[in-house]
């Protein structure tokens, strides 16, 4: 069968073809080693290289598995990363968090950067930061050993040689007296009971998604910011789309001398938190 024949047959099985059809093309391009959507149309009359493997992938997609897990890869800020079910799939909102932090580092004119990515997951935040500034001093920390294994895969892929710590929030960095002046984090921020897409619930790791009503991970991080070995500290967090008054209360309680701000994303929602300690 040609690529286009497989494409047309697959379209008939989609519930929402207008939205989902691009995933068919992505899978077909992967099977035939094509790099772009334009390549698909150029080569659409070629025979598919491995129909059996395509049908396995397509069946997984029809069962709701995200395309990133099927292919074990995703793109983040123009770079390709490995992902599987041990880590969250990076979102566009997280790209905004990294871009904001890069801008803040330049605005503050930080010459020496000692960075840490905590709740690191796949490591895309810290790796993107390291590649932007050619960092030699960067740390990745996550409570999940499985997630850190994915971080290590991506660090090797992008030729980053950092330190890794398995532990809760900042605990291991403080215990090991690590110097940090730039911190980035995407902690779990979805409260139990909030609406979450079924595909996310079924396939993505709940440890990285859900928090309690008190945002305990944020308490753990914010309450320990002053315990980090540092001169100054710029900490940037990704936030959920919810009320941030409780997190602001923690900042005022544990970091009374810090300057901080909540920043809107491209949709006008407060999804970024920046804290600066001198």
Biggest sheet statistics? 7 strands, mixed
Q: Count of helical segments?
A: 12
| Alpha-beta classification | alpha/beta
The portion of residues assigned to helices is: 40-55%
Cα separation of the termini = 64 Å
Residue runs with pLDDT of under 50 for 5 or more positions: none
Would you count the extended β strands for me?
A: 11
Amount of beta strand: 15-25%
The best one-word shape is elongated
- Compressed to H and E, one letter per element, the order equals HHHHHEEHEHEHEHEEHEHEHEE
Give average pLDDT, whole number.
92
Radius of gyration (Å) = 21 Å
Strand numbers in spatial order across the main sheet? 5-4-3-6-9-11-10
Characterise this structure:
The chain has 278 residues and is α/β, with parallel strands linked by helices. It has helices at residues 3-11, 17-32, 37-42, 51-62, 67-71, 92-108, 124-133, 145-157, 171-175, 198-203, 216-222, 245-254, and strands at residues 74-76, 79-81, 115-118, 138-142, 163-166, 182-185, 190-191, 210-211, 233-238, 259-264, 270-277. A seven-stranded mixed beta sheet has the order 5-4-3-6-9-11-10, with helices on one face. It has a two-stranded antiparallel ribbon with strand order 1-2. A two-stranded parallel sheet has the order 7-8. A hairpin with a 2-residue loop joins strand 1 (74-76) and strand 2. Helix 2 runs antiparallel to helix 4 and helix 6 (92-108) runs parallel beside helix 7 (124-133). It is elongated.
